[in-house]
Structure formats: structure tokens, C-alpha cells
């Protein structure tokens, strides 16, 4: 029995189909490019080459906006894109924050821990959801807001050491706090969707068993 789930929130793992053509979509090429520059971004931040890191980080942010734009305009939605885009976001942001922490910047370690906890929880939750209900969640609006706000916060923390008086001292921390609010909201949002899907799966599994027993 098919699960009654909004198609924009979940992908059914049994129906995931990735073709060679998907790798040629402009949107997916942009997401793949963002994933490829993650090591470069990490290395630049770790070596405190902040000016170049800002350029590469800015390119990553722009690419995150462009892949969704081209997917909509060119009608290039694909299962590969639904997987590749959020993976590239998580790796780029996670690598940038981790490098900031390692480079002894003012970025709070507890904020890094909060971001990593969210990402690990989402990955593990999706793994369990895929096992139990053969579904995985897709990136939603709250997730996109989280990625964008965290990216801006990272760039502000990169600017601080090279242009300390460019903006007020509290602005980078304020942007980080805004991003962490989105971290909490997106985590709750994904958790609600996952628990709802697990509940639906349990109800339908029990109904199927009862129908089978009656027959």
C-alpha cells in the first residue's frame, strides 16, 4: 500500500532512479562543483588565507542559489539533485566551520557542535526512515534558510580578522545566532516529518497485517 505523503517532502527509496542524463543537468553540475571545492575551502580557511576563502565561500553561496534556479527554470528536477544539493551544502558548511575552529578563530566551538549534531541527527534519521518506511526526507525551506544563514555567518567570521572595523563587532555573532535559530527550527521540522512518516508506515503496516490475517 502506498504511503500518503506529500511528494515534495519525501523521496521513496524504492523508486529512486538516477540516469546518466542527470549528471549532465546544469543544476547538478553546479552542485557537484560546489562539492568539489569543499577541500579547497577547508584548506584556505585552515591556512588562514581568509581573502581567498571569502572568494571561494562566496562562489559556494552563489552556486547554491544558482542550482535551484536552473533546476526550476530548465525543469531539471531529478533524484540525483535532491540528494546532491543538500549533501554539497552540508559538506561545504561543515568543512568551513570545522576549519574556522581549527584555525583558532573566534567562531564558538559550541555552535560548531550544534551544527554537526543537527546534520548527524538528520543523516541517522533518514537512514532509519529509509530502513523502516523506504522513504527519505527532501531538503525543505527551513533547511535552505539554515544553509544560507550559516554560510553568511561563516563569511562574516572570515571577514573579521582581515577587516575588523568593517562592521560592528556584534554583527557576526548576531548572524550566527540567527543561523542557529534556523538550525533548531529545521531540525524540529525534519523530525516532525520523519515521525509522521514512521507513524503512517506503522499504521499502514498494521492494517496490511490485519487484512492478511482476515483473508
Salient structural properties:
215 residues; mainly alpha; Four Helix Bundle (Hemerythrin (Met), subunit A); two-stranded antiparallel ribbon; 7 helices; 2 strands; 75% helix; globular; disordered N terminus
What this model shows, in words?
The chain is globular. Strands 1-2 form a two-stranded antiparallel sheet. It has helices spanning 26-36, 38-46, 50-73, 79-102, 109-133, 141-162, 169-214, and strands at residues 10-12, 135-137. 33% of the residues are buried. It contains seven helices and two strands; from the N terminus they run E-H-H-H-H-H-E-H-H. Helix 1 runs antiparallel to helix 3 (50-73), helix 5 (109-133) runs parallel beside helix 7 and helix 6 runs antiparallel to helix 7. It has a single domain (21-214), classed as Four Helix Bundle (Hemerythrin (Met), subunit A), CATH 1.20.120. It has 215 residues and is mainly alpha-helical. The model is unreliable at 1-8 (pLDDT under 50).
Amino acid at each position: 500500500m502506498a504511503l500518503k505523503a506529500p511528494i515534495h517532502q519525501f523521496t521513496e527509496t524504492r523508486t529512486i532512479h538516477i540516469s546518466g542524463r542527470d549528471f549532465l543537468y546544469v543544476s547538478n553540475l553546479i552542485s557537484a562543483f560546489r562539492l568539489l571545492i569543499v577541500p579547497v575551502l577547508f584548506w584556505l580557511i585552515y591556512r588562514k588565507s581568509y581573502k581567498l576563502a571569502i572568494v571561494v565561500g562566496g562562489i559556494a553561496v552563489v552556486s547554491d542559489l544558482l542550482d535551484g534556479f536552473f533546476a526550476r527554470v530548465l525543469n531539471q528536477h531529478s533524484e540525483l539533485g535532491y540528494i546532491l544539493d543538500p549533501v554539497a551544502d552540508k559538506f561545504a558548511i561543515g568543512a568551513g566551520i570545522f576549519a574556522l575552529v581549527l584555525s583558532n578563530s573566534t567562531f564558538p566551538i559550541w555552535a560548531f557542535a550544534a551544527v554537526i549534531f543537527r546534520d548527524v541527527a538528520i543523516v541517522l534519521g533518514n537512514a532509519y526512515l529509509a530502513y523502516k518506511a523506504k522513504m527519505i526526507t527532501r531538503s525543505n525551506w527551513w533547511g535552505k534558510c539554515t544553509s544560507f544563514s550559516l554560510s553568511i555567518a561563516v563569511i562574516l567570521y572570515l571577514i573579521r580578522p582581515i577587516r575588523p572595523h568593517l562592521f560592528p563587532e556584534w554583527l557576526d555573532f548576531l548572524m550566527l545566532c540567527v543561523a542557529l535559530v534556523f538550525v533548531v527550527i529545521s531540525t524540529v521540522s525534519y523530525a516532525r516529518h520523519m515521525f509522521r512518516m514512521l507513524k503512517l508506515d506503522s499504521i499502514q503496516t498494521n492494517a496490511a497485517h490485519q487484512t492478511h490475517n482476515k483473508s
